[in-house]
Write a structure and sequence with these properties.
Helix 3 links the parallel strand 3 and strand 4. About 2% of the residues have low confidence. The chain folds into four domains: 129 residues, Rossmann fold (3-Layer(aba) Sandwich), CATH 3.40.50; 169 residues, P-loop containing nucleotide triphosphate hydrolases (Rossmann fold); 70 residues, Helicase, Ruva Protein, domain 3 (Orthogonal Bundle), CATH 1.10.8.60; 41 residues. The protein has a five-stranded parallel β-sheet, sandwiched between helices. A five-stranded parallel β-sheet has the order 7-10-13-6-14. Strands 8-9 form a two-stranded antiparallel ribbon. Helices cover 46% and strands 15% of the residues. By secondary structure, it is α/β, with parallel strands linked by helices. It is built from 18 helices and 16 strands.
Length: 446
């Protein structure tokens, strides 16, 4: 059973014995008594968790002892026990850092028990929060961003520089490259790691709601504003705010956002009070912001304010050596989640994974491996378990890197499916002979 060390600083021996008796009823408490503040201070190396202090000591006041304890043992809670019911003194001592102020009367014992219980609950909560923070920090460790390619090593270097500074960071890269993961890793390795990290997808918030979401609003600011609400900038005070898809912010909102960055203060919608904020800003977009500035869609002054330290994430198709590393990482993770044995990839599966261009990047690869793990019946993932569902955009035929002959086969197959496997119609639509269509049908074994 872990001992909870308590010091009693009381110059009245009878009252000190009474406190010691009551506290010693709990077998978890290790209690030690001192008659002077000096004796207490000379024993702080024993690392007490809590100290009860008589306000009137022979060598110093309770306030003086509290101040010295705060300096030499800042993690130790101090409960002042006084014979005087002085509200002004109590408030002053609480402001100085006392955990509680208790008056000596018939309720002292119960008040002291309740105060110690509350402190221990708070201590446990702080311990759990610290453990959670450590676990979150591990989750977003730089080493969890997998890769050995030249591009990802450059990203690691920039992330380390960003975490060691307070500079604004702009993360760019295609959809699915892991921009939010990078933002979280920077935050949880920075001096702000114990404070909030709040992510906001600017493109997902309706234009008429984004100001109230970012800056908050006062009661009555609009019809449904029944109460005051703080915005995410206030909520992220001392921490980091990650604004994803910043290019989707309209010009009017960009003007207000620029002012917040310049002044480091926000004004709630419908309010007049300027609220100071200390927030680190990390932005992300899959668009080219410089091009958006040229088009008139993004303010140039805001663009230069946000640039800070640019971190670009290269697309997965340019990280060929990393594809199999990441695929194996996901396979191991899913084997634990699904309570399966670890699975490895056959040569044909690896070739198929390397041949694809991943328009959805790491996010798409994760989905592909998850499905492969479900389809696989044993410890082996082969090519038939690897399934891609490319989204064809901007007239692109496919996201796969195919030869010309493979592209033709794909086109013929697509039209055969479209026209109920009628070779005559397909030949006419594609401007080729029926014999050519039949040849491709034979090759595809349709």
């Amino acid at each position: 059973m872990e001992q909870f060390k308590i010091f009693i600083v009381e110059d009245d021996p009878w009252y000190a014995d009474i406190l010691e008796y009551h506290l010693s009823l709990n077998p978890e408490f290790e209690v030690e008594k001192f008659a002077t503040g000096k004796d207490c201070l000379s024993n702080l190396h024993k690392r007490p968790s809590l100290i009860t202090v008589d306000f009137s000591l022979p060598d110093m006041t309770g306030k003086e002892l509290l101040s010295k304890i705060n300096i030499h043992s800042p993690g130790t809670a101090v409960i002042i026990i006084s014979g005087q019911e002085d509200i002004t003194t109590a408030v002053e001592l609480l402001k100085e850092g006392a955990f509680d102020y208790i008056v000596k009367n018939e309720e002292t014992r119960n008040r002291l028990w309740n105060s110690i219980r509350l402190f221990r609950e708070n201590l446990q909560l702080r311990t759990e929060n610290e453990q959670l923070r450590i676990e979150v920090g591990k989750k977003y460790n730089f080493s969890n961003i997998i890769g050995t390619s030249k591009g990802i090593h450059k990203t690691f270097s920039l992330m380390e520089k960003a975490a060691a500074s307070q500079i604004t960071v702009s993360v760019t890269g295609e959809t699915g490259t892991g921009k939010e993961l990078v933002a979280k890793a920077i935050h949880y390795h920075s001096e702000r790691k114990a404070n909030p990290f709040i992510a906001v997808n600017v493109g997902a918030i309706p234009k008429d709601l984004i100001e109230s979401e970012l800056f908050g609003y006062e009661k009555g600011a609009f019809t449904s504003a029944a109460t005051r609400k703080s915005g995410v900038f206030e909520d992220a005070h001392k921490g980091t705010i990650f604004l994803d898809e910043i290019a989707e912010m309209d010009l009017n909102m960009q003007t207000k956002f620029l002012r917040v960055l310049q002044e480091r203060e926000v004004k709630r919608l419908g309010g007049n009070q300027e609220i100071k904020i200390d927030v680190r800003v990390i932005t992300a977009t899959h668009k080219n912001l410089a091009e958006e500035v040229k088009k008139g869609n993004f303010r140039a002054d805001l663009f230069y304010r946000l640039m800070g330290l640019p971190v670009h994430l290269v697309p997965l198709r340019e990280r060929e050596n990393d594809i199999i590393l990441i695929a194996r990482h996901f396979a191991d993770a899913f084997s634990k989640e699904f309570k399966q044995e670890k699975a490895d990839f056959t040569e044909d599966a690896i070739k198929k994974l390397l041949k694809y261009s991943y328009p959805g990047n790491v996010r798409e690869l994760k989905a592909v491996i998850e499905l492969a793990m479900i389809l696989s019946d044993d410890k082996t993932i082969n090519a038939k378990h690897i399934n891609f569902t490319p989204v064809e955009t901007n007239g692109e035929l496919s996201s796969e890197q195919l030869t010309l002959e493979e592209q033709i086969l794909k086109i013929v197959k697509s039209n055969l499916l479209k026209y109920n496997c009628n070779p005559t119609i397909v030949a006419k639509k594609l401007g080729i002979s029926r014999a050519t269509v039949y040849r491709y049908i034979k090759e595809m074994e349709l």
